[in-house]
């Protein structure tokens, strides 16, 4: 009988002995678990490999695990977006409400990786709430629960219309416990529960839950994802109600031929818009495509507007009632999701609108909200990827330049180009912690959008935001900082101050460059705030001699050249003595009479030289601020010698 030979790194693959990354690339290629990445190192140690070989394998392992983590994160985000689009597809072709709700609960459980997911709906006839759909449940009593209004965690969600989460249901005293609910939860063995409301307009019609049989803290992204599924579930219920209403209307039309003839064109238009909207969702159309399709069906002009541009009173009424609202000769339908107002569809100049056409406008608003949520999810995913790359540039010390360039290339960024690191921070501090957090999120979103449009990167750090933007050939770091401060302040309607580093390049290969530039940008930001220049943007060059302290590199020749370079150059070209005259003038307390004694020249000669100096340095050269900078430059010029130009 033959015995299996012991497996070693050399026996596994001759290439492994030469390339420490080869075994890990193979593990990445076949999607191995994280534990498997320890085996090449363990085998090398078992074979007595040199310490350098083992160290190389350890470094390759860390790099491969980082790549694996990023790939897993991307797969997870792609799965979330795919599930949202699949659910929207199910809703667009809605035939069976139970099947759609079951699919939503299944996908929510799968993506959040919880033991159980379930959905409850309010019963207005009996005045209680009943379990409608469960996934992963094993207890019969739990699956058949009927809850009184306001009872349990679901009752708290329904009362406040806000998500709630508990990591230990039995010990949580924020909501009303009952023996019936507690017994059902106990049978199911649940501990951690997250609940989000199902909203139709301002009305809570039920609650979507995700729960675990162990203690768990749900992340903010998981709460938002479950909220998106809840919005889809509410939309499915609303669509089912709409189909029920349509069927009832058709039954009534069948009983009266005259009504059938009068309403047939309207029903045909409703069916047409349903098909068009379904097609738009399937092929990834935008909100303006939805408006154009509804315009054709309703024989009018439909426009999508931001929430701030729509009539405020009509918009709020539409959101509260969940229906389109007439305003003068227009109709306004709120575009909302999960209680958040995203905009409005406005039908212009069409005061006479029958109920079916009104419902068509409302359905278009609902589809528009789904498209906006999907687009937002994709945008947030891209911003996270950009932020992760910038974090790696600022923090990581052991990284592969080739992988960094590839990641940047996928984001349409070029790490070999000249960039500027900018530190941005809000000036106003909100009294409420939630308001301040919301303002920071708005700043992060605006910075992410700016970075995406400028082929750069952005990430939230230390209570503010850091950006990495390419520098145009005809631009300076100071100009870029000023532009970014104005853009961000205008975008979020708050005062934003921005500090900039000096231009940097070769970010992929120079390990410390980004971190050092970020520190310089923060020093400039702090200097602006100390000097009372909130809302401005500046780099070290904007601070005169203070820039020598703020900049990472002490550019003394550059400071001297910027301050008195014209005078030095004039002396060098013409053989004059303006620098010495300027030095003597300040040493004499700015007195021409004492200056002429020190130089042993006539006072008129001093006056002529000072006039020439004024032409070279500008009319404000004797102002206190300029005078201080000029005297410092003169002293640095003397100390450094005559070679500074």
From TrEMBL:
Listed InterPro entries: CdaR-like_regulators, CdaR_GGDEF, GAF, GAF-like_dom_sf, PucR_C-HTH_dom, PucR_C-HTH_sf
Gene3D superfamilies given in the database record: 3.30.450.40, PucR C-terminal helix-turn-helix domain (1.10.10.2840)
Chain ranges of the GAF domain: 96-247
Superkingdom, taxonomy of origin: Bacteria
Alphabetized Pfam families for the sequence: GAF, GGDEF_2, HTH_30
Span of the signal peptide: none
Record-linked PANTHER family: CARBOHYDRATE DIACID REGULATOR, DNA-BINDING TRANSCRIPTIONAL ACTIVATOR ADER
Family of the protein in this entry: Belongs to the CdaR family.
Protein name per UniProt: GAF domain-containing protein
Species of the source: Streptomyces tabacisoli
